[in-house]
Structure formats: C-alpha cells, structure tokens
Amino acid sequence: QVQLVESGGGSVQAGGSLRLSCATSGYTYTNYCMGWFRQAPGKEREAVAAIYTGGSSTYYADSVKGRFTISQDNAKNTLYLQMNSLKPEDTAMYYCAADLPPCGLGQRYEYNYWGQGTQVTVSS
Hints:
Blueprint: E1 3-7, E2 10-13, E3 18-25, E4 33-39, E5 46-52, E6 58-60, E7 68-73, E8 78-83, E9 92-99, E10 113-114, E11 118-123
Parallel strand pairs: 2-11
Antiparallel strand pairs: 1-3, 3-8, 4-5, 4-9, 5-6, 7-8, 9-10, 9-11
C-alpha cells in the first residue's frame, strides 16, 4: 500500500529555511505526480508545489515562487521541499501527496494518497 511519511518540519524565525522530506513506499515512485500542500488553522488547504517524478516538470503556487523548491531523489524514492526566506504566513501543516498524472496544482488535479503532515511554524 502507498505510504507517505513527511519529516523536517519545525519552528524557525522569519527569513530562515527548512527542508521537508517525504519518504515514499508501496508503489512505483517513477511516473507519479508528487505534491506539497499546506493548511493553516481556519484556512483551506493550499497547493504549494508539485513535480512529475518521471521528468523535470515542476509547478509552484505564486505565493512560494522564488522561495520554495521542490525536488526528488528517485534512488531514495523521496520528495523534498526546500523552503527559504520563510514568512510567518508560511506557518501551516505541510502534507505530501501522490497520484498518477496529469500533474498540476489546480483543483482539477486529484491527489488520493496523503501523508500525515509535518508542522512548520515561522515566527516574526
């Protein structure tokens, strides 16, 4: 069965950096869409970034472009999210998700496999 396990969250000051990891198992990692999502208390879930594991296509929300980088290590079946120049508004629970293509961040793109999340807190 598909398993996604996030790690790397924590508390940082504004301007700091964190790298999230998502270890995957239970399916063939290549040729999947992998995404990072976040949800802050009282807010709707927001798509942050996505990547097609069989190629180099990446997708970013406008709110994180230029600050966050999604990447992968196919040998380790692991997804990453490098977060730089963090802002207090980045505070949220971050989840990784997976599903078959097509890939993207809009509502038409479904992700049916989810991890449990890792908390990111950015203080001002």
